[in-house]
């Protein structure tokens, strides 16, 4: 990662280099994100927490980058990536929908819709710390339901590399 003079660009670089495997793409995306941020600042708007806002903004730019990339064909029991993703998304939606009220919405809004937790708190009528706790407990419930349904293999970084269903979905 190159040396950066602007602290806000440094924050964006760190997020991009962590999420995007190709250093050139990460650098280009970081610059695009930085330009968008500067344009927004020029309107007179300023975030409450610059670092938190930059991290969310950079994460969303990286996610958009992956969405734009054309689907690649991967051997997975005869499924291409888009079919596999649709199958996983359908399964995850069923598990999320099986969560208790409050937790279901908190997880859906925070993780699927990428809504800032402050907005999740407002929608749920909770304090920010209460909403963060609700999201974390909901994620823990979601993980437990996933562990009931599948055995997971992880790489040395803790990322899931394989999923082996134990039985039909418990939800």
Structure description:
The protein has two domains: 7-68, no CATH class; 81-165, Orthogonal Bundle (Arc Repressor Mutant, subunit A). Residues 70-76 have low confidence and may be disordered. The chain has seven helices and two strands, in the order αααααααββ. It is globular. With 171 residues, it is mainly α. The chain starts with 6 loop residues before the first helix and ends in a 6-residue tail after the last strand. It has helices at 7-19, 23-41, 50-68, 81-97, 103-112, 117-124, 128-149, and strands at 150-154, 160-165. A two-stranded antiparallel sheet has the order 1-2.
Short description:
The protein has 171 residues and is mainly α.
Query: What is the element string, with H for helices and E for strands?
Result: HHHHHHHEE
Q: Provide the helix percentage.
A: 55-70%
Major sheet characteristics: 2 strands, antiparallel
- Supply Rg: 19 Å
Keywords:
171 residues; mainly alpha; 2 strands; 2 domains; globular; two-stranded antiparallel sheet; Arc Repressor Mutant, subunit A
């Amino acid at each position: 990662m190159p040396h950066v003079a602007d602290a806000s660009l440094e924050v964006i670089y760190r997020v991009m280099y962590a999420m995007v495997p190709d250093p050139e793409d990460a650098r280009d995306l970081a610059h695009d994100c930085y330009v968008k941020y500067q344009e927004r600042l020029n309107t007179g708007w300023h975030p409450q927490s610059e670092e938190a806002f930059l991290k969310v903004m950079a994460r969303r730019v990286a996610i958009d980058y992956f969405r734009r990339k054309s689907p690649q064909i991967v051997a997975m029991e005869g499924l291409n990536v888009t079919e596999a993703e649709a199958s996983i998304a359908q399964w995850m939606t069923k598990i999320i929908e099986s969560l208790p009220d409050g937790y279901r919405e908190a997880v859906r809004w925070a993780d699927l819709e990428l809504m800032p937790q402050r907005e999740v708190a407002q929608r749920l009528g909770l304090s920010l710390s209460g909403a963060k706790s609700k999201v974390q407990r909901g994620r823990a419930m979601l993980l437990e339901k996933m562990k009931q349904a599948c055995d997971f293999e992880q790489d040395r970084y803790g990322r899931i590399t394989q999923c082996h269903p134990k039985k039909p979905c418990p939800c």
